[in-house]
Amino acid sequence: SEKAHLVFEDLSENIKENRKLLQDVMIDIGGFETLATEWWHFDLKGWQKYPVLDVTLK
Q: Which of 28, 35, 36, 57 is the most exposed place for a label (fewest CB within 10 A)?
């Protein structure tokens, strides 16, 4: 829904500040990119150059 978008603004100032902090750390320090439709979704830049693994985790 619209509430999941990065630019959704109908939130408390505290929530918006925390969302911005998470984005700043993940983008500036971690080298990740955002997904505009999900505030919690980050992809590592250049992820496309790595093969997809199909492994069983225990």
A: 57
User: What count of other Cβ atoms lies within 10 Å of the Cβ of residue 39?
Assistant: 19
How far apart are the two ends of the chain, measured CA to CA in Å?
A: 33
- Give the span between the Cα atoms of 19 and 32, in whole angstroms: 15
The tokens of 26 are what?
A: 């993940």
Contact 31, 44 (CB under 8 A): yes
Please report, for the chain, the start and end positions of each structural domain, with discontinuous segments joined by +: 2-49
Tens-digit pLDDT profile for residues 19-34: 999 999 999 999 999 9
Q: Taking a C-beta distance cutoff of 8 angstroms, is the pair 37, 1 a contact?
A: no
